[in-house]
Structure formats: C-alpha cells, structure tokens
Specification:
heterodimer, A: 300 residues, mainly alpha, MetI-like fold, B: 538 residues, alpha+beta, Dipeptide-binding Protein, domain 1, Dipeptide-binding Protein, domain 3, 2 domains, 6-stranded mixed sheet, 4-stranded mixed sheet, 17 helices
C-alpha cells in the first residue's frame, strides 16, 4: 500500500511539473481547482506588485505630505491617505514587498531546514531521533506567536529579527510532518538497496528520501508563506516587527486602527483587506496543491 | 450639523472643566466622598522604582503615591511656578537666611515609614546626599539641579539645613521636584543604593499592595498617613498600557477613570463625542520638550557640522502646524519653557539653526554641511521609545525630515527598559529620541539637560564653554542678566554646537471620567501625583 501511494504521489508531481506546457497547466488548474487558481492569481499579483511597485505607484511610500493628511478615498488617492499624508494604496503596494520578503524568507528557510532535519531524524532513527524529537516537542509546545514574541524579545525589532523570530518556530513544525512521511519511505526496499550499495548517508537522504517527501513539504511551504505574512503583520501590529516608516501592512494597521478607526476608517480597513487577501490567496493555493498532490483526496 | 453639535459639546465640556477647576477648591471642601479605588492607565512600562535615577512618568505615576517629599507644589494651585507648601516639613517653606545661602527646614514629628520606622531629619539628609552627591556608579538624574548646594546637615532629629555655595532662585523649585521622594536612612544604610530600584518603603498616602510586572501596580490606603483624613481613596490601581488605543478604550469602557499624562486632540474629541458630560477635559501648556540626542562618541557625530545639519533639516514651524493635530506636541521653542520670561521670542528663535521660516534655505545649508563633512549620504540608526505619543509620531516625522537632506535613518523602536539601557549603558545609538520633561517650571535648573555633565544627558560630550556659561547663568542676579546668558547658552547648545536637537514642545490634554474629583492639571505630568487629594463622586 505504501509503495503504491508513493508512486502515485510521484506521478502526480510529474503531471503537474513535466510533460505539459505552462498554458496547459494553467487551463488544467483553472478547470480542476478554480479556487486554487484564484489563490494563485492573488499570489502572482502580489509578486507582480512587489516587483514593479516603483513603476506602478505615483507616490513615495515614505515621504510625509501633511497637506494631504487623512484625506478620504478620492480620485487622487484611491484608498485615501494616512495621518502623515502618505498614499495608502502606494504603501499597500510597497507593503507587499515587505510581506513577500518576510513570508518567502521565513517559509523557505524554515521549511528547508525542517525538511533536512526531519528526514535525517527519520533516517537515522534510534537515540538521535528520540532526542531530536523531544527537542522539537519543546519548540512546538509554544504557540507560533508566543515563540515569535520570545525571539523578538531576545533579538530586538527590525526586519531581519522578525524573519529569525518567525523562522525558528517553523522548523520543528515542518520537521515533524516531513519525518512522519520519511519514516515510511525509510522502510522501502530501494533505501535498503541504496544502503547495500554503500551510498553515503547524505546521498541517501538527499537523493532518495528528500524527493519522496516533496508533496507534504510543498504543502507546508505554501502554508508557511501565508502564516509568515500573518505573523509578520501581527508582530508589526504589536510594535515588535518592522518599524516606521517602512511600509508594512501590520504596521499600517497599528497606526490606523488604534487612533483613526472611527474618524478615518480607511486607514485601517485597506491594510486589513490586504493582509486577509494575501493569507487567503496563499491558503487557497496551498489547499489546491494539497488536493493535487494527495492521492487519497485526488481519488475522492 | 453634527460637527457643530460635537464642537459645541466639546466647548461646553472644556469650558465646564475649566470652570469647575477654577471653583474646585470651594466645591470639593463640601462634597468630598471617601472610599473607592481609582483605576488609572499609564502609557509606559516600569523601568525601576527608584525615582531618583528615573526621568519618566512611567514610574512617577505608579510609585509617587507611596512616598512623600520635603516640600511640594501646592496641589490646589499646581500651575504656579512659585506656590510651594511643606510636605514632610512643618510650617511654611523657608525663605533662606545668610544672604539666601542657608535654608533650614523643620521636619514633621510622628511621621512613620510604611515599615514602622519613624521619620527623622537624618532620612532627609541621607536621601538628598544620594540625590546630590551620589557615588560615582549610582545614577542621579537631577544632581545638576543642585549645583548650588554645598552641604546638607541635620543638627538635630527634626532640623535639616541646606547650605548653598551661592544664592540661587532655582533651589526651592528644585527641592519641590516630585522625583525627590524621601527614603529611609535605615534602608539606604542597610541595603545600599540599589535596593529602591525594586523595593518600596515610603511615608506616602498609600502602601504598596502589589506589583505585577507588565500589568499593574496597586496601593492601599495608609491608615497612618500623616495628613489626617487623607487619602480619600481606599486604594488605587495603576494599569500599565503602553498602547494609546488601550488607554482610550479603558477610559471609554470605564475600566480606568483617568490617564494623567495626556491625549492628542483627536482622542479628546473622540472621548467627548462618545461620552459627553461623563468626560471632563483639562488642558495646559506642558513643560516638556521632545529632543533628538546625538551620540558624540560615534563618528561622524563628533563633527559639529553634521549635528548642525541634522537640526537644520527640521521644519519646526510646519511640524507644529500639522503634528499638533495628531500628536501631543504643539509649540515651537528653544531650551526654555515657551511661556516663560526667559524663553526666546520668535525673533530670537529664527536666528537659531533649524528655526528659520525659510526651510528650503535651511535644508540646502544642511546638505552643504554634510557634503563638507564628507558624509553627503549619511545613514543613521534612530533609536526611539516604544511609546506612541509623541515619540513614534514625532520620530516618524523626524526621519522624514532627515530624508529631505539625503540622510537615510532607520528607526529602531524599543520598549522603555531596553530604550533606557541603550541611552544610559550601551550607547549603541547614533541619534535617539529623548526628552526634557520637567515638573516645576524652573528654567535655570531645567536647562541643565543640555550640559554634557548632566546626569540625564546621554550625548556623551564635554563642552567646557557651555558649562562656563551655565555657571554664570546659575549665579546671575537679575532677570535681564539671566536672559542674556540664557540666549548665549541656548545658541551654543542647540545651534552652534547642536549637541541636541529640540523638536517641539508638548501640549497637555487630560480627558477623564467626570466622577474623578480633586485633581487639577499642572504644566507637567509629574506634578500632583500623590493622589491623596483625589476622590470619586460615585
């Protein structure tokens, strides 16, 4: 059973990644996973906005313009301005850079580190696995936000430290999920065969085990991006993340929601919408990826 | 129409508040109610409980009610810079003898510390020795206020004599500073000078009930308080709430009755619009100014041209116009409280670097100076305190101003304890938000903040010419003479050498639950915080 499932996963990955043109892939995804396609659209739109922010936006995201302070949405400022007279649309577009930078950095570093550690733990087993998993248990005992808060308290605020703060709690989560998949793969005869042929541990882990846990890994990776964006916004909202005048959605929400929720609600609403959409997009995309890669769900 | 009504309501409440304040003494004398617990919010975390070393309201508000002073500002007339009354002394405040060089205080009898130790003159002497002549490693933020003091002695158990090196009009106001809380000599001798950073033992109207770090400090009525019939309250709870939204919502939801520091105009308007006559508003000019302290030990900030460029970048007049709408700052001024006779007039101000109304010319000059100093694309770490008002608002504005002269500043906001650690010990900042908030309006003492030798100056510089000007200022006999020297001092401190950058002076707005009675606004958020005169009309 295990062998069949794994081979199905591999074939599914192949379906999505090889043998088809990009256009065909998009059509297939739109047809089979319309919500996932919508999520992917949001994700790619964010990436596009982040890359071309300085071309798309007519205003400086940082410079104060007090004569325009707290202007409601109008033809000149589509989403209005904040208390410093800065265009909110511009700051949201630039804020996607911060969100994606933090989101992808945390997700990639956290997930890849978790992948290697999780597979290694499963592969070596025994006392190493036992001790390593208890260490992971300690990290996982703390909720994500609490762990991130503790790390920020130690290292201080700022973008780099926020990335560290969010990445650390991601590692054990990814390692635990990947390990459970890797445990079954470890028992497959081709791993024994590789051992018998005298391959090194590194080669067996990287060439034979890691590729076979890609399905849960990719799902974790996409989920982490959304979670990281939300965590970064939460930390910034609490004043512990990135700092003014850097455009960041959580920070915008903090400045706006607290003081201007009644008299200038647009200051708080739009960053909130941006955060929700981004997390929604990544979650939809991740769910569809899971549906596509999980053989059981696919059969249903 | 709605706007007109809300403005009308606001005017009525403000006017009503002021009118009530004016007749407060007479009305409270007849209608005082005892009992109840006053819940108030404090927009800062606690650094230490030793007020002698601290400079923040974040510790005055929760801890001042546990202590007494030798003399204090009259709580019924706190706006006056000259109305002082005895607290632990008896009778009236001494006038000074021997050509105003000797001040003899008679100490109250029968006063006890909360641990039961009787108060004597020796406690006053030990306390003031700690404040004025601390050992080298013991911080004392206001020791420079007492440059005129030669000796402090206790000829008997109930007499304290301050002998001055020279007569000074700033001595009595300096003694009335609310940070000069009286400690027990026994505690200082037994436990040392660090004990009070974490422990409380005073003679104040309230005894410590509980300190919950990060949450609250609470006190209960001291039944042995030396003022009979006081305090009116059974207790108080000082709730730590650094975020302004939390403080506002606490008052709005009646989880707290008052915030003693101050709200920006918009917050006042929101509270009044929502609660009408359940909110009382008192407003006042504020003896508090936000500064940018520049770390002279870090290059290139040892270069006066760079420091001057940073102050030239600030468009203070426009900042005043707009920031006063969203922050608790308002007035453009120099080193002296703007309404004081020793303060610079506008004609005098515009001659200082960064005060010209031609901001384009100032910014051009700033860029020229940076280029001349070899740092046209200067990058700075701007340290700021994690308190919304006005630090983060003005900090964001300052960074914008720096950007206009090509300086790229990165803001690093830290909680109060970490912030002070950087300012006082680590010195790991380039430029930091800082403040000069004083209690009693006493310009000769207040401006010591700008001296490199001052205990609360974190710029790490020595400027002997500035010290010399101050020494002359401290002994100047007439106001005219003081004024001339003050201009000289001001020009050197914030313009020629630009040791610190003055941003804007604050404006105090207190909007609170109308059932809080007996409290009067002062031009300082440090004053009138003993809470023994507050009662609840509930």
């Amino acid at each position: 059973m295990v062998v069949i499932s794994e081979s199905m996963v591999e074939s599914d990955i192949e379906d999505l990644t090889t043998g088809n043109s990009w256009g065909a892939m998009v059509v297939t995804m739109l047809r089979k996973y319309p919500l996932g396609a919508f999520g992917a659209f949001i994700v790619f739109l964010m990436i596009f906005l982040a890359i071309f922010a300085n071309v798309i936006t007519p205003y400086d995201p940082v410079l104060n313009s007090f004569e325009n302070m707290l202007t409601p949405p109008n033809a000149q400022f589509w989403l209005g301005t904040d208390q410093f007279g800065r265009d909110i649309l511009t700051r949201i577009i630039y804020g996607s850079r911060t969100a994606l930078f933090v989101g992808f950095s945390c997700a990639i570093i956290g997930a890849f580190t978790g992948l290697v550690l999780g597979v290694a733990s499963a592969y070596f087993g025994g006392r190493f696995d036992l001790i390593f998993q208890r260490v992971m248990d300690v990290f996982m005992a703390f909720p994500l936000i609490i762990m991130a808060l503790a790390v920020v308290a130690v290292f201080g605020t700022g973008t780099q430290n926020v990335i560290i703060a969010i990445t650390i709690p991601f590692i054990p989560r990814c390692a635990r999920v990947v390990r459970s998949s890797a445990l079954s793969i470890r028992e497959i005869p081709y791993v024994d065969a590789a051992r018998a042929l005298g391959f090194t541990h590194t080669r067996i882990i990287l060439r034979h085990m890691v590729p076979n846990v890609m399905a849960p890994f990719l799902i974790m990776l996409t989920a982490f991006v959304g979670q990281a964006i939300l965590l970064e916004a939460s930390l910034s909202y609490l004043g512990l993340g990135v700092q003014e005048p850097v455009p960041a959605w959580g920070l915008m929400l903090q400045g706006g929601a607290e003081e201007y929720a009644e008299s200038a609600p647009w200051v708080a609403i739009w960053p909130g919408v941006a955060i929700s959409l981004a997390v929604f997009g990544f979650n939809l995309f991740g769910d569809s990826l899971r549906d596509a890669l999980d053989p059981k769900l696919r059969q249903q | 129409m709605r706007k007109i009504y809300s403005k009308l309501a606001l005017s009525l409440v403000v006017g009503g508040g002021l009118a009530l304040g004016a007749v407060g003494t007479a009305s409270t004398a007849h209608a005082v109610k005892t009992g109840g617990t006053l819940n108030f919010v404090v927009g800062s975390t606690i650094t230490t409980s030793d007020l002698h070393r601290e400079t923040t309201f974040g510790v005055v508000h929760p801890f001042r009610p546990f202590y007494s002073l030798l003399i204090k500002v009259n709580p019924e007339n706190p706006s006056s810079p000259t109305d002082f009354i005895c607290d632990l002394c008896e009778g009236s405040v001494p006038k000074g003898t021997d050509g105003f060089k000797n001040y003899t205080f008679t100490i109250r009898k029968g006063v006890k510390f909360h641990d039961g130790t009787p108060l004597t003159a020796h406690d006053i002497v030990a306390t003031y020795n700690k404040i004025i002549f601390p050992p080298k490693d013991v911080p004392s933020a206001r020791k420079s206020f007492f440059k005129m003091v030669d000796t402090i002695t206790a000829p008997d158990d109930f007499t304290v004599v301050f002998k001055l090196k020279f007569p000074s009009g700033s001595f009595i106001p300096a003694v009335a500073t609310p940070f000069n809380i009286i400690y027990s000599k026994k505690d200082l001798d037994t436990y040392g000078y660090e004990w009070h950073t974490k422990n409380i033992n005073g003679t104040g109207a309230f005894k410590l009930a509980e300190i919950q770090p990060g949450s609250h400090v609470s006190g209960v009525k001291n039944p042995d308080y030396f003022v009979k019939g006081r305090p009116y309250l059974d207790g108080f709870k000082s709730i730590i709430a650094p975020k302004m939204a939390v403080r506002l919502n606490a008052i709005r939801g009646d989880r707290a009755a008052i915030e003693f520091r101050g709200f920006p105009p918009k917050a006042r308007d929101d509270l009044v619009a929502a609660l009408g006559d359940k909110i009382t508003v008192q407003e006042s000019d504020w003896n508090c100014v936000l500064l940018n302290t520049i770390n002279h030990k870090k290059k290139p900030f040892d270069d006066a041209r760079v420091r001057r460029a940073l102050t030239l970048a600030m468009d203070r007049w426009a900042g005043s116009k707009y920031l006063s709408k969203i922050a608790i700052v308002k007035t453009v001024g120099g080193v002296v409280f703007p309404n004081h006779p020793l303060a610079a007039t506008k004609a005098e101000l515009v001659k200082l670097a960064g005060y010209s109304e031609d901001i384009k010319a100032s910014q051009t000059e700033a860029m020229r100076l940076l280029k001349e100093a070899g740092v046209p694309n200067l990058k700075i770490d701007f340290l700021n305190r994690g308190v919304d008002q006005p630090y983060k608002v003005v900090g964001t504005w300052a960074i914008d101003q720096y950007k206009k002269i090509g300086v790229n500043a990165v803001q690093k906001v830290q909680p109060s304890s970490v912030f002070y650690d950087s300012l006082r010990k680590k010195h790991d900042f380039d430029v930091s938000a800082d403040f000069n908030c004083q209690s009693v309006i006493n310009p000769i003492a207040d401006v010591t903040k700008f001296l490199g030798s001052s205990g609360n100056n974190y710029g790490q510089y020595e400027d002997q010419p500035l010290e010399d000007i101050y020494n002359k200022l401290a002994v100047a006999a007439t106001e005219k003479e003081q004024r001339v020297l003050m201009r000289e001092y001001e020009t050197r401190a914030i313009s020629d050498q630009a040791h610190l950058g003055v941003t804007l002076w604050w404006y105090k707005i207190n909007a609170y639950r109308s059932y809080v009675k007996g409290w009067k606004i002062a031009p300082s958020h440090y004053l009138n915080q003993a809470l023994d005169n507050i009662w609840l009309d509930q």
